[in-house]
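Bit of a strange request maybe. I'm writing a small parser for structure token strings and I need a real example to test against, not something I typed by hand. Could someone generate the tokens for this chain?
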Amino acid sequence: MRTFDFDVAIIGGGSGGYAAARTAAGAGLKTVVIEGGREVGGLCILRGCMPTKALLYAAEVLHLANHAQPWGLKSRAGFNFAQVMARKDELIKDFAEYREKQLEDGRFGFIRANARFLDAHTVALDQGQPVTAKHFVIATGSRVASAPLPALAAIGYLTSDEALTLKKLPKSLIILGGGAIACEFAQFFARFGVQVTLIQRSPHLLKEFDDDAGAVIETVFRREGVTVLTGTKLTGAEKKGRLKTIHFEQAGQPLSASAEEVLFALGRVPNTDSLALDQAGVQTEQGRVVANGFMQTTAPHIYTAGDCTGPHEIVHIAIQQGETAIHNLRHPRRKRAMDYRLLISVVFTDPQVAVVGLTEKAAKAQGISCIAASYPFNDHGKSLIMEAKDGFVKLLAHPRTGEILGGACVGPAGGELIHEIVTAMAKHMTVQELAVTPHYHPTLAEIWTYPAEELAEKIA
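Reply from user aminoacidic:
Good idea to test on real output. This should exercise your parser:
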């Protein structure tokens, strides 16, 4: 019988990898984490959730200070961009150091090296001896996608990673993309005085959400001075002097936009190219590690978690996947499948956009029958007090039983408010039950009772 150096070797020390490691070590498995990144912490801590939200909150404070007239207040706030970035850096340093301490606290081995499969049970390291393991968990995350136009590389552009390390603000900026990354950066830069042009391929921003959500964000962005161009096709790029120009088509018409800098925000791709996964019998599709619902790859003893496999690049999903992978390699006869019924998505623009479960768009695509009702924030007591009038909440329910199938919140504190519907759906509550659940007045949360009451009447 072959012996191995470790019971489990986890490649990648981000959120998914760390979750797998602490779960495996807690179960008594001899475990090692192999991390080849220059920094430790994973995308969320280093270049994703935490730094972007730190900057967005600074932009929100600045915006509120400079738009205080509705409350009878007079103020005009300035800013020191270097200090804004320094605060973000200090926060990220603290988060990253804490994660590094967790990885080095002795519960499992921790090797700083890049790994590459030699066979199904062995990885070579770019420093040190090869490592063997009975099981592996691949959790190598993602990297910024390559630009679709060769001309973009010729003129130079910022990635989302580089935008987080800017020393000074450009006077003008073109952002390519209309997803969460593009929208969050667009509002951040615009609120710090940058002239922003957002160019999106789809008919609406945030195409993964229902069109009504994207429409609210488009309205707010335009009101705040962002030029929003949707339904476009990129055709070229050039640089003249200090300005960079993007050429595109919209409704069949050739157009162009120019700015000091271009931010490419069209997403990320799995970070798997250097792993030689074919040597281990692990299949990929466009770089994404192919896995079943048990997080098991095409090599039965190798599992995966996080952005390198998807299908949803979200931190809490990566953590669940890492935990699920370890459970299943420990209990092959009692496997537990991932359940994405309670999938949550949040975009931290202002207003925030948050969704759990089904959207109307997804329900239609999947042929799922549902009924929906919405209620606007511009007719709600607490949001009127806050002068937070943009957006709405929406509930989707089963047309016969009334069970809540999904919820959306485009509005103030949307990322917080959506968790009421997450909790309701976790317990399979109906709109009838939500409608009669006590809500304090005046609160933002009580807005959920209005669409719940409307749907309850339809079902009754």
